[in-house]
Amino acid sequence: MIRLFLGASALALASSPALAHDPDFSVERLSTHVRTMSDDWFEGRAPGTPGEDKTVAYLSGAFAAAGLQPGGDLRADGSRKWTQDVILARSTMVDTPLLEMNIGGEDVMLTQNEELAIRAPINGEAQVELQDVELVFVGYGTHAPERGWSDYKDQDLAGKVLVMLVNDPDFEGGEGDFGGPEMTYYGRWTYKYEEAARRGAAGVLVIHETEPASYPWGVVANGNDQTFDIVRENPGAAHSGMQGWMHLDLAERVFAAAGTSYAAAKAAAQRKDFQPMALGATIDATLLARQEQIAAKNVVGMLPGSERPDEYVVFTAHHDHLGLVEDPAEEGDAVYNGALDNATGTAALIEQARAFAEVGGAKRSLVFLAVGAEEKGLLGSKYYAANPLYPLGKTVGVLNTDSLGVFGPASDFSISGTARLGLLDLLVEEGEALGRSFAPDPRPEAGGFFRSDHFAFAQVGVPAVSYRSGQQLTEGGAARATELAREYVANHYHQASDEWSSDWRFDGIAADLTLIHRVGERLANGTMWPNWAVGSEFRALRDASADERD
Predict the structure, then answer these.
(1) Cβ within 8 Å of residue 108, ≥6 positions away
(2) Are residues 422 and 282 in the same domain?
(3) Does 355 share its domain with 432?
(4) Looking at residue 44, which CATH number applies to its domain?
(5) Pair (157, 183) in one structural domain
(6) What is the DSSP string of 116-155?
(7) Could you read off the pLDDT tens digit of each residue along the chain, which spans 550 residues?
């Protein structure tokens, strides 16, 4: 058993009794929710669309039928809505980007979503125009002074287009200054965009490789016609004018023309003495976009606590997906249905709510938060964390469900990433009581910790985990689970083919819900306040709100 020795918190976890009776989670209801929300009628559930409106109506009705009360924004009369408005900036391409590079003296016209995948500009400008802008290779695009590492070497690269690698310098070799193969936040493309903008870059292009990115080119080539962000006073300070991805084939051509090879440049970037390298190439780009603000929606239901209603246990899942396919004729389908990602987690949220409502709630208040705009950068959860409906300092913890397993029960379970916190101790203990063992994230190099909604809560100090279904399948074991996972990522993740299947097994999700419910019940009826492990970057944030819990 994993023990973090968190002091009184860990002792409280160890002494709490297990449930005498587990809820009976209905596989039929779970399947129906997933099949319904991933139907074409919901139009892919994208934020700010009629598909989101339909999704919000479905979830509000499902929460009400499960026995919840509205828990969203306050009305003038003091009552609450079912929703929280999530005010976002939206940028929509109004024409296909014009893209051309000069590579080794040759002008090369480029096609959007083939050689480059450029996102609709979200720097606040309706038109972005780049002319003969120099490309500079900046390694992994990382500035990490606490690790003695900077790919920028204090060079002034303002006004350049910065070309960089995805993931961390440790990905290839498995060890080094970034702690081994597990991705740090420096490895996420979101960080790389942020750092480039801080340095005044005119643009940033992340070179795509399937293994270090953890998804194929088709994923980054989808959905670039719209980009979303939280509303910022100065969006240009957070976003370069041009942000996107470069296909590996194009990258190899650019580096060859520069007198080196992509492999050699990547090897150089894995050393601390790496220096930014001018690539002898330039880019012309014209991006036209419509800028506006929209109100996406979080859907919120709650059960007030019977004894400590001002303390909150939060369950989360994202309800959104990618919307409609840009070119249905090319894809052969018109809708990104998002069945596994994340109708499964949202269905679990509804049925978890029903289970608690049927026993009359708990001593602490329970909040069921279906967040929107996750696929646009965790924006629904980021908005809630910045504008909480219920105090973050009095939030006991967050249990997130995202893309649960649909291939039957497993004897193990996991969480996204390798964070250490009291919630994990509790999951491990309750898992053992159910005969299930904890298995570390099988792919920490994919950066799963930073890719789901619990991360937005972690960033403000709230203990939060994203639950992952197990790999040791009862039928077929880890080998079958690995094969199925690889097939899903390669062929269905963020593709129009992520659709409900009659072959899917929902008894595994029901078993996952039993484990999550036991953890939620102990949090909701106990007095514990889980924390992050000593040494966690999030612990100081949690400790800073300790007075609110005294």
Answers:
(1) 100, 101, 102
(2) no
(3) yes
(4) 3.40.630.10
(5) yes
(6) EEEPPP-SS-SEEEEEEEEEEE-TT--EEGGGTEESSTT-
(7) 333 323 333 333 333 444 447 999 999 999 999 999 999 999 999 999 999 999 999 999 999 999 999 999 999 999 999 999 999 999 999 999 999 999 999 999 999 999 999 999 999 999 999 999 999 999 999 999 999 999 999 999 999 999 999 999 999 888 889 988 889 899 999 999 999 999 999 999 999 999 999 999 999 998 899 999 999 999 999 999 999 999 999 999 999 999 999 999 999 999 999 999 999 999 999 999 999 999 999 999 999 999 999 999 999 999 999 999 877 766 568 999 999 999 999 999 999 999 999 999 999 999 999 999 999 989 999 999 999 999 999 999 999 999 999 999 999 999 998 888 999 999 999 999 999 999 998 888 888 888 899 999 999 999 999 999 999 999 999 999 999 989 998 999 999 999 999 999 999 999 999 999 999 999 999 999 999 999 888 999 999 999 999 8
Could you tell me the two tokens for 166? 């995805």
Which residues form the domain of 166?
91-291
Q: Is residue 490 one of the residues assigned to a domain? A: no
Question: What total of structural domains would you count in the chain?
Answer: 2
Q: Which of 291, 321, 342 is the last residue of a domain?
A: 291
- Residue 479 CB coordination number (10 Å): 11
9 SS3 class: helix
Strands 464-469 and 203-207: unpaired
Q: Are residues 228 and 323 in the same domain?
A: no
Report the CATH number that the domain containing residue 212 is assigned in CATH. Answer: 3.50.30.30
Rounded to whole angstroms, the Cα distance separating 227 from 377 reads 9
Kindly state the tokens that stand for 44.
């892919």
Do 198 and 113 share a structural domain? yes
Q: Does any domain span residue 120?
A: yes
The pTM (predicted TM-score) of the whole model is 0.86
Strand partners, 250: none
Phi first, then psi: give them for residue 337, nearest 5 degrees: -75, -30
Spatial separation of the C-alpha atoms in residues 504 and 513, rounded to whole Å: 16
* Cα 499 to chain centroid, rounded: 20
Domain boundary among 291, 313, 335: 291
Q: Alpha helices, DSSP H only, in 317-444?
A: 328-331, 344-358, 379-386, 422-433
Mapping DSSP to helix (H, G, I), strand (E, B) and coil, where does residue 83 land?
A: strand
The answer to whether residues 468 and 522 belong to one domain is: yes
Core vs surface per residue 41-50: b (16+ CB within 10 A) or e? ebbbbbbbbe
Distance CA 404, CA 415 (A): 11
Q: How far apart are CA 136 and CA 104, in angstroms?
A: 14
Taking alpha carbons only, the member of 218, 203, 207 closest to residue 114 is 218
Largest CA distance in the chain: 74
Confirm whether 245 is domain-assigned.
yes
